[in-house]
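FAQ: What does the model actually see?

It sees only this:
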Amino acid sequence: MVWRKVINTRSYGIVCIALAIALNTIGVGYAAWQNGLQVEGVVATGYIDPQFTSCAVVENCFPGRAEAMLDGQGKRLILQIYDAYPGYYAHFRFQVANQGTVPVSYTARIDNNTPEVAIRISDTQGIIGGAGGSQYGDLWLTVGNVDENSDYLFTVDLAFQQWDAVK
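And it is asked to produce this:
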């Protein structure tokens, strides 16, 4: 009886060692096969593309006149004032639209190096949802003490970044 217990214990030990060697061999073979395997893919998360889509003169003092043009693929507005005089004002309405698929936050920045002309803009910052979302804003320009029939050129640039609701 004792002899049988010794043989059973030794046979379990030999089986365990053989099983460990077999599993190691399978692991080495699987690792060698995995070494040559390559997986490639493309991940698309969307894109951002906010633009000024329109800008129009809503109100203008005669005899001066104002014009608004889109520039830089919709990233900039150019505002021109002709024949300005003290007290002249113009009101512009613009639209910012997101042509991309990811929501964006934007900031409209005015380049005004003329202290005689006061420019006030509504909705300089905003958030626009993706895929065709848009927002309107207004810009008022008032001329102070200048020479009669003065001409001015101003730009409004659009700075933007991806909007994250978690921030």
